[in-house]
Amino acid sequence: MNNKTLSIKDDWAELLTYLPADYQTLANDTKQLEVQYGNAKITTADELLRFLFVHAGAGLPLRQTVAVVEGGGGPSISHVTLHQKMCRAAPYLQALVNELGSASRALSVEFMNGYDVIAIDATADSSPGSDGTDVRLHTAIRLTDLTVLHAEATGVTGGETLKRFPLQTGQLVLVDRGYSNGPGVASAVKKGADVLGRLNRGALPLYKCDGERIDVMECLRSLKGRRTAEWPAEIRTELNGEVMVIRVRLVAVRLPKDEAEEARKRVRKEYGKKTSAEMLEAAGYVALYTTVPATRMSAAHCIELYRLRWQVELLFKRWKSICGLDELPNFIEDTILSWVLTKILLVLILERMGAAAAAYSPPAQLVAKTQTKSKRKQAAA
Fold it and tell me: Residue 302 falls within a domain, yes or no?
């Protein structure tokens, strides 16, 4: 019994080492441990995280969570107290997730065509019985190693925009139509990043250098066969009161017939009776825009690189199927963000545990020893 208790304590201490070094300070800064009357039973960030991890990680109701933690030697609190802690925990959890992402950015050593390529997207989840979206999760991953660089949970009003991501010089961001808006692209450019995105003809008009709006469909209809083509263009927008003109390239290619028909099926399914003939025609092409100059990346390379954006979609599928991120509990709105952020924090910790274990599987010393033996046998033969 004692050995089991010691093992649990050791495992918990090991888990905490994967958190940001200042996780206790962050708890104090976000006022997670303050109480109104001074009789707190949760006095450390360790105790608070134990409740949150058991609750969201194990998928237990509040009453069962407090019983399990107390049975394991933790503080004795009511399920009402835990609910109140959940209501206040979102800023703290978001800060922890952000710091883990920042640590990942510092490890970036691989680049694509001189870029640190980032894929960005959002996924929506709903609580049981909900009529619409309750939580939207905005995520950025590095494509060279699929490391999560940023994850942010918002309510239904949290829109898809590049303005919410901590981008930086040297990054190339891959985004879908939802992020194709002028202010978002301008925000990325102001931070030093480049953008490669699927064009949204309605939300992101493109212009010629003389200010005339480009007829994108006319450009697409001029494509010959399966050749990739490009046209110089400009994005004219405003960011925080500043008028900006951003030079971009319109890059496009015609889809094969079978892929074009699949794309049209998706359009009909998504828009139903609102589907127009022009929408169906446009579905037969891949139309991108990019701030990357042609001297650095060809149009064909842009098309091929953009295909990798689906890695972030696969990430969401893994999170939902393996980690249960799509099984939102029937919480009221004031705790659901904390629940989602706790899940994401656990996912990031597990990823780092896996990365650490991979360094010893097999151990480098064992590999070197095996190779040495093999060379000796070959020499002896």
Answer: yes
Dihedral-angle region of residue 113 (phi above 0 means left; psi in -120 to 50 means alpha; beta otherwise)? left
125: phi then psi, degrees, rounded to nearest 5? -130, 155
Classify residue 73 by its DSSP letter.
T
Q: Identify whether 375 is part of a domain.
A: no
Number of separate domains in the chain: 2
Joined together, the tokens standing for residue 131 give: 């009529």
Return the residue matching tokens 């469909």: 217
> Per-residue confidence of the chain (381 residues) as pLDDT tens digits?
444 444 566 778 888 888 888 999 999 999 998 876 556 788 899 999 999 999 988 888 899 999 999 988 889 999 999 998 999 999 999 999 888 877 766 555 445 778 999 999 998 887 766 666 778 889 999 988 888 889 988 887 888 999 999 999 999 999 999 999 999 999 999 999 999 999 999 999 999 999 999 999 999 999 988 899 999 999 999 999 999 999 999 999 999 999 999 999 999 999 999 999 999 999 999 999 999 999 999 999 999 999 989 888 888 888 888 788 777 776 566 788 888 889 889 888 887 777 655 544 455 554 555 555 555 555 655
pTM: 0.75
Q: HSE-up of 172 (CA within 13 Å, CB side)?
A: 24
Q: How many CA atoms lie within 13 A of 280 on its CB side?
A: 11
DSSP string, 117-149: EEEEEEEEE--TT-SS--EEEEEEEETTT--EE
Paired strand residues for 207: 213, 234
Clarify whether residues 249 and 350 are in a common domain.
no
Same domain, 185 and 301: yes
Q: With CA atoms as reference, report the closest residue to 62 among 301, 276, 330, 298.
A: 330
CA distance 306 to 119: 9
C-alpha to C-alpha distance for 185 and 178, rounded to whole angstroms: 12
Range of the domain at 71: 2-96+329-358
- Using CA atoms, how far apart are residues 364 and 198, in angstroms rounded to an integer? 43
